[in-house]
Amino acid sequence: MYMPFMMGGYAAAVLLMLAGCRVVTWSVPGLRGVRFLTWGFGCGLAGVILMALRPFAPAWLTILLANLAIYAAQFLLYGAVADCLGAWPGFRRAGLALMTVALCGMAWFTYVDPDLTARILISSAVPGSCTAASAALLLRHLRKAPRGIGGSATRLPAMKALAGIQILLTVQHLLRCVLTLLYPPAQILHLDLIQAAYTYTNLILNVAGGCGLIWLALCIHREDLEARAETDGLTGLLNRRAFEEILTRELRRARVATTSLAILLTDIDRFKEVNDSLGHQAGDEVLRRVTRALRESLRPADVLSRFGGEEFAILLRDTNLGVAEEVAERLRLHVAGLTGLPSGLHITISIGVAANDVNERLEELVRRCDEALYRSKRAGRNLVTLSREYQTAAGMAPADAVPGLSLTS
Question: Are 374 and 392 in contact (CB under 8 A)?
Fold first, then answer.
């Protein structure tokens, strides 16, 4: 097959992918990886156009510069994968060094010791290394990605598909090297069956890889939007809506498994006075420090959220009221011991604690916990108060509110 005709078709397909990338960018601004993907297809387009000029232009343009553009395209496609995943491009230095060596080798086997087979081997080694690096990066992230519902689980199908395409590209480049060594081509202008088949499959797989990366970028973009909708911007914690969704699921699970869970509502004492006297920047710093203190005192399985303003909500899975009381007391002491706050502030928190009851709805559980928190505030602050229903059910006698513990009556 006459190579300039095939390269013309290749260029048309790449041009369509470039147009698709621009449409996606206009439709969904800020997609990670698409900028590098666009640059990569742009370099690829330049490379195949230069190759199509081989019968009419000098070798430095149609061989050296054309292959350099193809190398850059593959390297940018690896960069697109890394950018999409938010990963450090570890192959960056090695890839640039490989491109430099390959270009020198291409010049040697073009002008000093002309050898078509060697040039084909080089032109497959660089893209094959880039696709192998992309596949390795995707597989590493696949192993780390959570398999449950939510989180980054929605991106898993796209990651698997893109990793499979990168592996196929790597195998294709390797197979081309082997077959080229076994059946060296006589010349390049009229492609033999091996080189023509490679060109066709390489085009199809690269287009599929571009589509797969756009799919992955859209999945990650959607996850980012969902995370922003469920996350408090100042503290990085879940917001109230996300917490209540999790609590609803956990109440359902606890009802089926007949297990217990507890929630804590925590409020920073006299926080409004901090904002009024020291300003909102100091208030924001207090919120961040209290957030860090609460995180340090909780288990990884516990759920911490900013419930609103200076109020935090905590879900303790598989925890009864007695253990929840101990956790709440630990949190209270930890926050009370914070130092280095703006203007030497001394911060305390009040906590309400409630454990689930059989068939109890979310609203009722939160109401009981909120009432316990209110009694902590009314009794003098810097207190842990258990919900009234638990005390009555357990047959406990009401206790006077003292720093550290209050059993509501």
Answer: no
Mean of pLDDT values over 127-142:
95
SS3 content of the chain, % helix, strand, coil (to 5): 65, 10, 25
Question: How many of the other CB atoms lie within 10 Å of CB of 8?
Answer: 14
- In this predicted structure, the answer to whether residue 395 has a pLDDT above a threshold of 70 is no
From 264, 240, 248, 244, select the one nearest 360 (Cα to Cα). Answer: 248
pLDDT at 357: 85
Q: Are strands 406-407 and 384-386 parallel, antiparallel or unpaired?
A: parallel
What domains, with CATH codes, occur in the chain? 3-229 (1.20.1070), 240-407 (3.30.70.270)
Q: What is the pTM of this model?
A: 0.71
What is the residue whose two structure tokens read 């990366």? 213
The Cβ of residue 232 has, within 10 Å, a number of other Cβ atoms equal to 18
Q: What pLDDT score does 147 carry?
A: 53
Cα-Cα-Cα-Cα dihedral sign, residues 27, 8, 98, 175: positive
